[in-house]
Specification:
With 464 residues, the chain is of the alpha/beta class. It folds into two domains: 252 residues, 3-Layer(bba) Sandwich (FAD/NAD(P)-binding domain); 143 residues, FAD/NAD(P)-binding domain (3-Layer(bba) Sandwich), CATH 3.50.50. Helices cover 24% and strands 17% of the residues. The strands form five sheets. It has a five-stranded parallel β-sheet with strand order 3-2-1-7-16. Strands 8-15-9-10-11 form a five-stranded parallel β-sheet. The longest helix is centred in the first third of the chain and has 16 residues. It is globular and about 65 Å long. The chain starts with 10 loop residues before the first helix and ends in a 10-residue tail after the last strand. Bound molecules: flavin-adenine dinucleotide (FAD) and NADP nicotinamide-adenine-dinucleotide phosphate. The site of NADP nicotinamide-adenine-dinucleotide phosphate has 30 residues, from α8.
Length: 464
């Protein structure tokens, strides 16, 4: 006699889907540099795939900051498999040493790459959710053997044998509120707040020229916007940071191996010193309010002390956070600090790595309890601000090798940008000792001197 609970076939088991993963494509979410790199590796290995891109073109997020020149030259920005694919298509490679703008990255690299990949890159296809066909997150028995079910924003559903989520973080910026929650009134004042990297000298000039502007944040985005604002005549600029001083934000100056990155902090420092930019330190945004005079932004410290500034526009350059909601029905094991995988987080946590260096990592560090789902690219770093494209290319190569069953290649992870080692403050010394560029610095990429590290792994932390 069955007690109705166990042993006998339950109605749910009887309805278990029979759909098999064999013959289904790998779905890549996002046609940014890392999603397209994954696609190039999949193509090279002869695996069927489909890239779903929310925007109308490849590199849609990068196109949003197309006016910004990146810090890393072309040679760091092109994936190896993508280069082979493009070369075969007769591509005119850009100068390895040139620093492209976001727009140039799209025009000279991502757009031709998407073209070479053909109709397997699908624009205007926003993924709304991912699950296992017939299984919610709770059901265990047999879930690995059924395909992923991917629902697009328009309602269409697709099946996949694996999912590489390279959807980035650009669409989920951090808030103005200093404690991580939105400041009071932040949503209501949205019309007066731009997120990072408005095109101050181009398309958005009219919104800024001659207007009192407050820039909040301590990273490269804040610095980039502040330098651009300083070129506008009669435009009062205030810069608010949470820290007690801006030293970290000024960066490594001449010691930075990416000279454009070093110059950013140096120029910013000079503008603050000259009085062109008014710096407010220890500013903890608590409230944003529209008044007859403009937008009032109030700081409140933990002791309750308040001060306010009234401006016409606010630029919230407070960084980004990952949005894992599309994968909420999958079994993810996320680090509580960063929202990266637990294996990757300790390698990139800015609280622990004063140089922001990252050891090579791949499929093993990126795996979740949900077999076949991998977040790669800047999304894989969660809230750590030190991601570089080259890191993502190696992630993509490793994950695709694993999906092809080539575990030897998958685990043979290397980074052109180096791993652990000794930070150097001198480019000459770094070259002499055959070291390369690290990925950034603690607490934001403006936070310290040049992160140059030895290429050879010597174990242990990088720089104390
Ligand atoms: C201003 C700026 C400058 C940078 N400069 C450098 C640099 O000099 N060197 C360097 O190495 N790195 C740099 N980075 C860091 C990083 O390399 C880039 O952010 C890079 O674009 C990350 O690539 P990605 O493919 O992971 O994500 P993204 O480029 O953000 O691509 C994600 C793609 O996914 C799409 N997408 C999002 N959600 C969905 C969805 N639900 N469904 C389908 N598609 C979706 C987006 O439209 C987008 O096209 C910079 C970042 C910024 C913001
Ligand atoms: N030209 C370029 O290549 C270029 C230009 C711009 C950006 N980037 C890249 O883009 C990525 C993102 O840079 P980003 O500057 O946008 O973000 P970021 O590096 O994360 O910096 C944002 C900083 O703002 C501060 N912050 C966070 N929340 C805050 C809040 N609520 N109020 C006040 N301050 C807050 C934090 O510093 P504290 O903790 O010290 O407060 C944080 O480090 C980086 O990889 C960067 O290198 C590159």
């Amino acid at each position: 006699m069955s007690d109705g609970c166990c042993g006998a076939t339950t109605p749910l088991e009887a309805e278990r889907p029979t759909l098999k993963s064999d013959g289904l494509p790998v779905v890549v979410i996002g046609a940014g540099p890392v999603g397209l790199a994954a696609a190039a590796h999949l193509a090279e290995r002869g695996l069927d795939f489909l890239v779903l891109e929310a925007g109308g073109q490849a590199g849609a997020s990068i196109a949003r900051w197309g006016h910004v020149r990146v810090f890393s030259p072309w040679r760091y920005n092109i994936d190896a498999a993508a280069r082979r694919l493009l070369d075969a298509a007769g591509w005119q490679a850009p100068d390895d040493e040139w620093l492209p703008t976001g727009a140039e990255l799209v025009e000279h690299y991502l757009a031709p790459l998407a073209k070479a990949l053909g109709d397997r890159v699908r624009p205007n296809a926003r993924v709304a959710g991912i699950t296992r066909a017939g299984f919610d997150r709770v059901r265990t028995d047999g879930r690995e053997s059924v395909p992923f079910l991917i629902r697009l924003a328009g309602g269409e559903e697709l099946h996949a044998r694996a999912v590489i989520d390279a959807s980035g973080t650009y669409a989920s910026p951090n808030v103005l509120g200093a404690s991580g929650l939105p400041a009071h009134g932040e949503a209501e004042a949205a019309a007066f707040i731009d997120h990072a990297l408005p095109d101050v000298l181009g398309a958005d000039r009219a919104a800024y020229e001659g207007r009192r502007t407050l820039v909040v944040g301590a990273g490269h985005s804040a610095a980039t916007t502040l330098l651009a604002l300083a070129e506008l005549p009669d435009t009062p600029i205030t810069w608010a940071i949470r820290a007690g001083e801006a030293t970290r934000a000024y960066g490594g100056g001449d010691a930075d191996a990416l000279p454009a990155r070093g110059a950013l902090g140096t120029r910013l420092h000079a503008l603050v010193e000259s009085g062109r930019i008014t710096l407010l330190t220890g500013f903890h945004t608590h409230r944003v309010r529209r008044t007859a005079e403009g937008v009032e932004v109030t700081s409140r410290t933990s002791s309750g002390a308040e001060r306010a500034i009234t401006v016409d526009r606010v630029v919230s350059a407070t960084g980004y956070r990952p949005d894992h909601s599309i994968a909420a029905e999958l079994r993810l094991d996320l680090d509580p600090v960063l929202g990266a995988t637990r294996a990757l987080a300790p390698l990139i946590d800015p609280n622990r790595h004063s140089c922001g260096t990252v050891p090579p990592h791949g499929v093993d560090e990126l795996a979740h309890p949900e077999p076949g789902y991998y977040a790669v690219g800047v999304k894989s770093y969660g809230r750590a601000p030190t991601f570089l494209m080259a890191t993502g290319y190696e992630q993509a190569r490793s994950v695709v090798a694993a999906l092809a069953g080539d575990w030897e290649a998958a685990r043979d992870v290397r980074l052109d940008l180096p791993e652990t080692g000794v930070c150097s403050s001198s480019l000459a010394e770094a070259q002499e000792r055959r070291v390369g560029l690290a990925t950034g610095v603690a607490g934001g990429l403006l936070a310290g001197p040049l992160p140059l590290v030895t290429v050879a792994s010597s174990g242990g932390g990088c720089c104390g």
